[in-house]
Design brief:
Elements (H helix, E strand, L loop, with lengths): L1 E5 L9 H15 L3 E6 L10 E3 L4 E5 L2 E5 L3 H14 L3 E5 L6 H8 L4 E5 L7 H15 L1 E6 L2 H11 L4 E2 L6 H5 L11 E6 L8 H14 L3 E6 L13 H4 L2 E5 L6 H5 L4 E4 L9 H8 L4 E4 L2 H4 L8 E4 L4 H13 L1 H15 L4 H18 L9
Parallel strand pairs: 1-2, 1-6, 2-3, 6-7, 7-8, 8-9, 10-11, 10-13, 11-12, 13-14, 14-15
Antiparallel strand pairs: 4-5
Length: 373
């Protein structure tokens, strides 16, 4: 099958959607499919199957920044690429965002499968735009959401009919990694992700400050970057010296830092539809302390693979981390449960479900007709 994958976000920027599309393309090609990836980017892609359709602009939205592309030129390039490739199916991520995925949906002659990744407690903008976006919605032959939270976010505005297929994870990449050799000794608290307000980095820093005196060998390892890095300036100099800032790392390098960690911290304030970083931590056997928010609850079960605490509560974050660090039997039990749960998110399991969606779309043919929403 010839499959065109449309990614709305900059290919050379860190992000879970980009990782998902990159890995999905790889696994589809391993199964004998031909793939073409369409995405914006600041530079040419390293992968031969990726077509960069223009340079993105950074758009702020609900506490984060999305590097997306919307222009007449990119609309034309997407259409030209699809005509040249002649796919059997087009798979678009977040096609209701005015960017590359929407362009691919509108320019596609083949049936379109859509995956929705986003979740938010509210979105006045999407609600207001829903009537304008319904023609795009009707072009989607099969609609997928990565979680029930993501499905509910879309269905509240456009009607039901989404099937849930979770994000995939390269479990072995994390399960078999060797520990990093460039970290200071001691117990390690690991953060992976953007340092954006919605990710809760300020609360993570506050929690580390509370733990620092009680756990004198604790080191805070931060893989990521963003505007909230300034939260570290509020730490006492001696505590700040125990923070290791790695910056943005290639995804394939991250597992060695998971293999070196004692606790994984994910205190997002909301708007998380799934939490692939949680699956990766579970695959590596790292106990998790995360926020008790809808998307995360579908991945981590409280008290089984980790602990879920109220969003933004640095005290509860610190207490949960302390509990894991001081109870070795509990830590081992959480790690073992996490490794077991990660198996359900292995790429072969997920790709089976995605291939089924492609077959359904091709069998149905065309685009979705008018429906009442």
């Amino acid at each position: 099958m010839r499959i065109a994958l449309a990614c709305p976000y900059a290919w050379d920027a860190p992000g879970g959607v980009q990782v998902h599309v990159r890995q999905l393309s790889h696994h589809l090609r391993e199964r004998g499919h031909e793939t073409l990836v369409l995405a914006p980017g600041g530079r040419p892609a390293d992968e031969a199957e990726v077509r960069i359709v223009g340079k993105p602009v950074r758009i702020s939205y609900q506490g984060t920044v999305a590097p997306i592309l919307f222009s007449v030129a990119s609309f034309r390039r997407v259409g030209e690429a699809l005509r040249s490739f002649a796919p059997d199916v087009v798979h678009a991520r977040e096609p209701l965002t005015p960017a590359t995925s929407m362009f691919a949906t509108l320019r596609a002659d083949a049936p379109v499968v859509a995956t929705f990744h986003a979740h938010a407690e509210r979105s006045k903008l999407l609600s207001a735009a829903a009537p304008v976006l319904r023609p795009v919605w009707r072009r989607l032959r099969v609609r997928i959401a990565v979680s029930e939270a993501a499905a509910g976010f879309v269905e509240a505005r456009f009607g039901d009919g989404l099937r849930v297929v979770p994000n995939g994870c390269d479990v072995d990449l994390f399960a078999k990694a060797e520990p990093a050799a460039d970290l200071p000794s001691g117990r390690r608290l690991l953060w992976v992700g953007r340092l954006d307000p919605q990710k809760g980095f300020a609360a993570a820093v506050q929690a580390f400050a509370r733990l620092a005196s009680d756990v004198p060998d604790l080191v805070f390892v931060v893989a990521g970057d963003g505007r909230d890095r300034g939260a570290l300036a509020r730490l006492a100099p001696g505590v700040r010296a125990r923070v290791v800032m790695l910056g943005n790392l290639p995804h394939e390098i991250l597992p060695r830092y998971h293999a070196s960690a004692d606790v994984f911290l994910a205190p997002a304030l909301g708007q998380e539809s799934f939490g692939i970083v949680l699956v990766e931590a579970m695959a590596a056997g790292v106990p998790i302390v995360a926020s008790n928010i809808p998307g995360y609850r579908e991945v981590v079960r409280d008290g089984i693979e980790g602990f879920l605490v109220p969003p933004g509560d640095a005290g509860e974050l610190a207490a949960a981390v302390r509990r894991v660090l001081t109870d070795e039997a509990l830590s081992h039990a959480l790690a073992a449960a996490g490794r077991e749960r990660a198996e359900r998110f292995r790429w072969p399991v997920v790709v089976d479900q995605i291939e089924s969606a492609y077959r359904d779309a091709v069998e149905a043919g065309g685009t979705v007709g008018e429906q009442r929403v």
